[in-house]
Design goal:
It is a single chain. The chain is built from 12 helices and 14 strands. By secondary structure, the protein is of the alpha/beta class. It folds into 2 domains: 140 residues, HUPs (Rossmann fold, 3-Layer(aba) Sandwich); 165 residues, no CATH class. The chain has a 7-stranded mixed sheet with strand order 6-14-13-7-8-12-11, with helices on both faces. Helix 10 links the parallel strand 11 and strand 12.
Length: 322
């Protein structure tokens, strides 16, 4: 363990990635000096870019340190240039990420010129967002993700999701379509959709439920009475975002299709948006069923017959989360 570690950053929004870097610094250092970029630094190097004022970032950082019991082991100093106190202070180590590695090397060179000992590197990996891309304050400010890296549905996409992505089925057409495609791989998104398929004797290969209907409790997992061959997987996703864990579960289900694996994906949050990755990852020739959007004014099911064109269409829609 090091006696004194130094690190620097803007810490705008104090997101999950920031918190992880701080956790790692305090896990390896008895005391940590945090260089917090000043107003002058932001004007010079970041051209403002919507970054919160120093006072707000300082308050958020000190609040975090108090809440985690780390305040007594921390010192926060304004950072006016790219080196800060690291080229002058009596430190043992510096926190290094992929983004600032070259700067840390430069700091060590400057310390050597000043007759100071080189700093050891505490290398910390960057935390990705739920979509496996960069978790950054810039993306948070643009409204793409929240501070935990979860994808946020942009307003521009809401209208598209109010239109059926496939064929709208009502009345007898629902049973006819389900029975016609009973031998295909079927995916049911929604509790009532899942119960509808079961009622016609079709066991969906993948069922995605959240145990709610129109945001109100619908039934428990036990009441769904999934057959024993179903693997029950629980994830947290939505409303308004798609979790990486949910996408990974769908990807894992796809790999098990050849072994006739069935999965019930039980969502804490809301399952609606998982229709999109379900369509993208479902095999060609399969069918995804989900409840008709409220805008149709016609209660029923939407049947999405999976082909390469439909996959491409939905992939383009999903890209707009970025």
């Amino acid at each position: 363990m090091y006696n004194h570690i130094v690190l620097g950053g803007t810490f705008d929004g104090l997101h999950k990635g920031h918190r992880y870097i701080l956790e790692q610094a305090f896990a390896q250092g008895m005391h940590v000096t945090i260089g917090l970029t000043s107003e002058a630094y932001i004007r010079r190097f970041k051209k403002n870019q919507g970054v919160s004022p120093f006072s707000i970032r300082y308050q958020a950082l000190t609040r975090y340190l108090r809440e985690t019991g780390l305040a007594m082991r921390a010192t926060i100093v304004p950072l006016d240039n790219t080196w800060g106190p690291a080229i002058l202070g009596d430190f043992d180590a510096i926190v290094v990420t992929r983004d600032n590695f070259s700067k840390a090397v430069e700091i060590n060179d400057l310390r050597k010129e000043r007759g100071l000992s080189r700093l050891s590197f505490v290398e910390v990996p960057l935390v990705p967002a739920e979509d496996k891309k960069e978790l950054s304050s810039t993306r948070i400010r643009r409204g793409e993700i929240d501070t935990n890296g979860k994808l946020i549905m942009p307003d521009s996409i809401r209208g598209d999701l109010q239109r059926p992505l496939g064929k709208l089925l009502t009345g007898k057409a629902i049973e006819e379509h389900i029975r016609k495609n009973h031998d295909n791989v079927t995916i049911a998104v929604g509790d009532i959709t899942t119960e509808t398929l079961f009622s016609f004797g079709v066991k969906p290969t993948l069922a995605i439920v959240d145990l709610h209907v129109e945001r109100k409790p619908y039934q428990t997992l036990a009441q769904h009475k999934f057959p024993k061959q179903y693997e029950i997987v629980e994830v947290a996703s939505g409303p308004g975002f798609i979790a990486k864990s949910a996408i990974e579960a769908i990807e894992r289900w796809v790999k098990g299709i050849r072994n006739r694996q069935r999965m019930a994906l039980v969502v804490e949050g809301e399952e609606d948006l998982l229709t999109l990755p379900a369509i993208i990852h479902a095999p060609i020739g399969s069918v995804v069923y989900y409840g008709s959007p409220p805008s149709t004014d016609r209660p029923g099911l939407v049947a999405v017959e999976i082909n390469s064109r439909k996959k491409k269409e939905v992939a383009e829609l999903l890209k707009r989360f970025d």
